[in-house]
Design goal:
heterotrimer, A mainly alpha, B mainly alpha, C mainly alpha, B: mainly alpha, Four Helix Bundle (Hemerythrin (Met), subunit A), 6 helices, elongated, C: mainly alpha, 2 domains, 3 helices
Chain lengths: 548, 245, 103
């Protein structure tokens, strides 16, 4: 196709970026902002791991340590993980994968970014103005009556960021329902879109509940209401119900998009239609829906009724099933596929192994009897980090690599990409696997001091964190480098199938496609098995080795 | 498995464009058509769906408050009924009727936009705004009365009343307060729509903003339809007719 | 022709009939609330409120003429609320079932 000006070049100037309605530019604005917050959250993590090098609480004051783990959680969850894939890759690719020029509501998309930034500013204000020491879970009555830190400002930061997330989700839902190109039926959509759609359902239905809950915290602090205060007849467990009603589905907001990216990458590296496409598509919906029925597993030891505990426990086990379906189907896709061992594959395999461990350990915690011993220990910390960091962040970073040529028009250096994938994988396991053992042995979470016998594992964990951090820094460095010095990327460097690879240039033009309207006649992942006579699907930038 | 391939003419199979003729890009563009939509129908459908998705978030937002209400009413039925009797049923009931009237005029305004009656739109929108403002004025007087009688939660709450009643008033103020905030936003939106209607922007070809703002307005009415019996009529069957003290 | 969006214009008579019904239902809810009907007071009040809300949704908001998708969205919103109410109250209401003091 004839080279036309990309969305990066035209129009020019800061104002054209800050007032853009182009979903691709908004995606890049988000990418920059979430990276900044990842760094902030990472600094808090560094503080935690440094303190935990020694058994005594000798590096920071106890109150400071409380603020560190709280802010690590708040920043990473609300300002990094939740927007990560949806606001960057989702914003960038959903219109393209739907064959359309933009999302349904471009100005609301821009508004969502500004709200994110506002929420972020409020978050920074909370950090700098006294911090937050309640744990990211804001449990009452400590958060509403006793804590002297910037609880209300932090609560408002979460409120605003949540509203940003609602606007993103609502845009995606309307776009996928009403703006697909002619011929693009639901079952021809890439699985990435199904995953984002399911995520958007969760955003819409869950986020408002955390919004009202944090509003109530702020109101209770300001007006001395008693809604969660036992002294005034209120119930702290009600807070937990309301909080987790959102925060459990929130973890699906965090992982589903990553799973969508993995589906895309698995198909591309295997040169195969995703095995059991319909099952994978429906599993995203099943996870989204079932995910709303399990929040009580965070309340097993809160005085919640045993019968409610039973119900929540059973459904929690059930929600593992659609996730397992995905893992089986991805594996089946790769089996006898023409798998190329690019760095992309490294990220995919890393994700699958780590997500598997994280998911399986969730079943330990879902079991009522076991949970009594494991709850509030490092076992829980390890479990959710395996899913969120080993799973979601690896999927996100893998997706950044996979889509980098398309988004920026540049290739990243392949050997370094492999190196960072390995560093991240090794560093991650070294950081978090010891924490399973620590938790099992009884080390509580959120403690800055611990018995001597736990030190070796804690030191190993901190060492792992250093390696992990090095992997992230390496990645950040070569991505930045590639923007100026990377090889120019062709439209379809991977020879992949899909509207984003076959019908747009790298980077895309402002309105994405040359044709108007885009007409779709093929199913997704319409790879043909390789044979000596079949013509090249595209001209890959690097040689694709076919195995078997 | 390929469908019959169309080349730009004829009717599209599958997808949201099913049943539509393939649009030609440079045909008569309605000036109100945003560039990323194919036609006005798609734009209107997207806007309506979008507003309903947003209203679902509002349902869940208020839902959290109703959840707290359900629990505490279950725990403290007697105290809550007694606390409820401090509320003025006439003002609350009157406000309910005011909002119902505002919903009628709102729906009528949408109808007038659909049939292209500029005057009808303007009159009905003005009445909708007036009804909304009336609601807020009545609310102001209600709140003022609560302040006078030491029924506002916090350090000045009447110490003679049990804590559980203070809990009732906490929820009363939060629920009606957030509802009132939504009314204020609604009136703001209606003023903008009124200005646009005044300039003759809406007609049978383009009335989406009126319809979609109307959806928001009706929703705020619906929240009050639930708030009124739950907050005001809780203890009405007790005591001397349940009238306000 | 559009796939299903309402170009149907609500007749004025419909508006007034619904208005009248809502008016009457409001009076009804006040009157029945003042009567001591025991355990029936709450379901009646809620039932009337649900009826009023339904009338607003179906006629004033014209959901009646909307696409099936819109109707699903409306129902889903209220259904999700019921999930929150149901499972949460399920906890509180079943706490005493075990017969053990404090559990």
């Amino acid at each position: 196709m004839t080279e036309r000006q990309s969305y990066l070049d035209a129009p020019h100037g800061i104002a054209s970026w800050l007032l853009t309605k182009d979903h691709k530019r908004i995606a890049m604005l988000y990418l920059i902002s979430i990276t900044a917050f990842f760094a902030v959250g990472g600094i808090f993590a560094l503080g935690i791991r440094l303190e935990l090098l020694t058994p005594k609480g000798d590096l920071f004051a106890p109150d400071t340590y409380n603020k560190m783990f709280t802010l690590h959680g708040v920043v990473m969850i609300f300002f990094f993980l939740i927007p990560s894939v949806p606001a960057t890759l989702g914003n960038f690719f959903i219109p393209i994968m739907c064959g359309t020029k933009d999302l349904a509501f471009p100005r609301i998309n821009l508004l969502s970014w500004y709200l994110y930034v506002l929420g972020g500013m409020l978050g920074l204000a909370a950090i700098l103005g006294g911090g937050l020491d309640t744990g990211w879970t804001f449990y009452t009555p400590y958060s509403t009556s006793a804590s002297q830190t910037s609880v209300s400002i932090a609560a408002m930061a979460a409120f605003v960021a949540g509203f940003s997330s609602i606007l993103t989700g609502f845009n995606f839902i309307v776009t996928v329902h009403r703006m697909r190109a002619p011929g693009l039926t639901w079952f021809r959509l890439p699985l990435f879109v199904w995953a984002q759609y399911a995520t958007s359902l969760v955003m819409i239905l869950g986020t408002p509940v955390i919004a009202i809950t944090v509003l109530l915290i702020a109101a209770e602090r300001a007006l001395h209401l008693g809604i969660f205060d036992p002294k005034l007849g209120g119930d702290p467990v009600l807070f937990q119900h309301l909080f987790w009603f959102y925060s459990h589905p929130a973890v699906y907001i965090m992982i589903l998009p990553g799973m969508g990216v993995i589906s895309e990458m698995v198909a591309a590296v295997s040169r195969k239609q995703v095995f059991g496409y319909a099952f994978v598509a429906f599993s995203s919906l099943a996870i989204a829906i079932l995910g709303f029925l399990v929040w009580g597993h965070h309340l097993f030891v809160s005085s919640q009724s045993i019968y409610a505990g039973l119900v929540f426990s059973i459904i929690t086990m059930l929600v593992a099933v659609p996730s397992a379906v995905k893992v089986f189907n991805w594996t089946a896709t790769m089996y006898k596929g023409a798998v190329s061992w690019d760095s992309t594959t490294y990220w995919v395999i890393g994700f699958m192994g780590l997500f598997l461990i994280g998911g399986l350990t969730g079943l330990f915690l879902a079991t009522l009897g076991l949970d009594i011993h494991l709850t509030d220990t490092y076992f829980v910390v390890a479990h959710f980090h395996y899913i969120m960091v080993g799973g979601q962040i690896m999927a996100f970073l893998g997706g950044l690599h996979f889509y980098w040529p398309k988004m920026t028009g540049r290739m990243y250096p392949e050997p370094l990409a492999k190196a960072s994938a390995i560093l991240v994988f090794v560093g991650f396991n070294l950081t978090f696997f010891p924490q399973f053992v620590l938790g099992y042995m009884g080390m509580p979470r959120r403690y800055h001091a611990y018995p001597e016998e736990f030190q070796v594992l804690n030191v190993a964990s901190t060492l792992g964190a250093t390696v992990l951090g090095a992997g992230y820094l390496l990645l950040f460095t070569y991505f930045l480098w590639s923007l100026k010095k990377g090889a120019i990327a062709p439209a379809n460097p991977w020879g992949a199938k899909g509207l984003e690879w076959e019908r747009t240039q790298s980077p895309p033009t402002t309105f994405n496609f040359e044709e108007d309207p885009v007409i779709v006649t093929e199913p997704a992942y319409n790879y043909r098995p390789p044979s000596p006579n079949s013509p090249e699907i595209a001209f890959p930038a690097r040689e694709v080795k076919h195995h078997g | 498995m390929a469908d019959s391939h169309t080349t730009g003419e004829g009717v599209m199979p599958g997808g949201p464009m099913a049943g539509h003729a393939v649009p030609h890009v440079h045909e008569h563009h309605d000036p109100n058509l945003q560039h990323h939509f194919y036609d006005m129908d798609q734009q209107l459908e997207a806007s309506t769906l979008g507003m309903w998705v947003f209203l679902v978030t509002e349902i869940m937002f208020f839902g959290g408050l109703f959840m707290a209400y359900i629990l505490y009413r279950h725990w403290y039925p007697g105290d809550w009924a007694a606390a409820s009797n401090h509320l003025n049923v006439w003002m609350g009931g009157g406000n309910t009727l005011v909002l119902i009237c505002s919903s009628v005029t709102m729906a009528w305004a949408v109808r007038c936009a659909q049939i292209g009656s500029r005057k009808g739109q303007i009159v009905n929108l003005i009445f909708t705004i007036l009804f909304g403002a009336t609601f807020l004025v009545v609310k102001y007087f209600e709140y003022a009365e609560k302040f006078e009688h030491h029924l506002v939660p916090g350090p000045h709450f009447d110490p003679a009343l049990p804590q559980q009643q203070q809990l009732f008033f906490s929820l009363y103020f939060i629920m009606t307060g957030i509802h009132a905030a939504h009314m204020v936003v609604g009136i703001g939106i209606m003023l903008i729509i009124l200005a646009m209607a005044w300039r003759g922007k809406f007609g049978p070809k383009y009335y989406g903003p009126v319809e979609v703002s109307g959806l928001y307005w009706h929703f705020v009415d619906i929240v009050w339809i639930f708030l009124f019996p739950l907050l005001y009529l809780l203890g009405a069957h007790l005591g001397a007719g349940g009238a306000a003290h | 022709m559009s796939k299903g969006h309402t170009h149907v214009i609500t007749p004025v008579s419909t508006l007034f009939i619904v208005f009248g019904t809502l008016f009457v239902l409001t009076i009804l809810t006040v009157v029945t609330a003042r009567m001591d009907l025991g355990a029936a007071n709450t379901p009646i009040a809620l039932g009337i409120a649900v009826l009023k809300a339904s009338l607003v949704i179906i006629y004033f908001m014209a959901v009646r003429y909307n696409t099936p998708l819109t109707k699903v969205v409306v129902v889903a919103g209220f259904f999700w609320l019921l999930i929150m109410f149901g499972l949460t109250m399920g906890d509180y209401l079943s706490r005493s079932w075990l017969g053990v003091p404090g559990r």
